[in-house]
Fold Tc1-like transposase DDE domain-containing protein.
Amino acid sequence: MDKFVKVCVAANCKGLTLMEDGGPIHTTLASQQWHQNHQNHKLAWPPSSPDLNPIENLWFKMKYFITNLFNPKMIDELNKAIHIVWDTIPFIT
């Protein structure tokens, strides 16, 4: 979340609607205070519901394209493939 927070602070992100799964990182006092200070809205999200999580579609596409277009064998090949595929995904998806 630190990287996300830095980007949002730089872009003056306020009033975002975020989906968080209730994991420990999302329930810390620091996280709660950050949301309150930035007037963010958190969606109500049922626990253990990966089928509802929109990020799962993104992970599926990432895995599909990395495996089928690049089929990396070495960690540096995987890293390069991840960046290439990630950079082709439209910001608003």
The mean pLDDT is 81. Residues 54-88 form one domain.
